Amino acid sequence: MKADALRGHLDPMILAVVEPEPLHGYAIMEALLERSGGELDLPTGTLYPALRRLERAGYLASEWSTVGGRKRRTYQLTSAGQKMLASGKQEWLTFRAVVEGVLRPGQA
Amino acid sequence: MKADALRGHLDPMILAVVEPEPLHGYAIMEALLERSGGELDLPTGTLYPALRRLERAGYLASEWSTVGGRKRRTYQLTSAGQKMLASGKQEWLTFRAVVEGVLRPGQA
DNA sequence: GACAACATGTAGCCAATCTACTTATCAGGA
DNA sequence: TCCTGATAAGTAGATTGGCTACATGTTGTC
In the prediction, which pLDDT does A107 show? Predict the structure, then answer.
């Protein structure tokens, strides 16, 4: 999968994995990897800046903790993030319809 | 639809609309608009550079003509473009599976 | 002692899309 | 006649988010 493809689609995906329960960065990476069937292996240079961006925008809130001597910053969805996630899902459906309307991916 | 969302997905869409028949730039814009149900209204500053890029890459070939006093540059798919389109469709299916695996868009 | 896994982060690069602009022809209505 | 909208093609420059590459430190295992 090309890197560019992710542009503009990563944010809702991150919000989606922290929706059911707050997670720290590393766990978010693992959740994305798992939910994507091993396809979405984000470099830390992508994920961590994205998390800070989402927090700055008010969609996530974070809190430090220490577990087994390791420092974790755990992120949870805010109510603004909840709304953003919902509209992100909606936008995805629109986007998918647009691409498939043009691409007709059935005919290889 | 956000601008970024298109990143990396536009190329195969352009190739797809010129697949059945060669089209000139303006007609490609109209075809995209029509196939997308009016959603994909590309600015010329996006389309024309993209066409040149695709030609430089060998996926499209172009030819000038004049119709009704207006100059047109008509693009057609090359065989490399044909292959690129096929793999682009395949990549789209992968990408879609990744996003939907993470997003579970059913649950709004 | 070394290495993999866990955990977080920054600096700087790159490329595709965008806004805003230019140039030109043709058709139709005021 | 003049103006506008549709047709047609293009460039310059800004933006921005995901990338590579790097830095730092802990824990557990061979």
Answer: 60
Nearest to A59 by CA among A93, A6, A4, A17: A17
Structurally, how many domains does chain A consist of? 1
**CB B5 within 8 Å of CB A93:** no
Give yes or no for residue A69 having a pLDDT over 60: yes
CB atoms within 10 A of CB A45: 8
- pTM tops 0.85, yes or no: yes
The verdict on a CB contact (< 8 Å) between A98 and B17 is no
How far, in Å, is the CA of A65 from the C1' of nucleotide C6?
14
**pLDDT tens readout for residues B52-61:** 999 999 999 9
Residue B67 is predicted with a pLDDT of 94
Q: What does the alpha-carbon distance between residue B7 and residue A41 come to, in Å, rounded to a whole number? A: 19
B105, part of any domain: no
Q: Could you tell me the CATH number of the domain that includes residue B39? A: 1.10.10.10
Altogether, the residues listed in chain A come to a count of 108
- Taking CB atoms and an 8 Å cutoff, what residues of chain B touch A2? 8, 91
User: What's the domain range around B12?
Assistant: 3-99
Note whether residue B106 is domain-resident: no
Provide mean pLDDT across the span B20-33.
Answer: 98
- Asked if strand C contacts A52 at the CB level, meaning under 7 A, the answer is yes
Q: Is residue A34 part of a domain?
A: yes
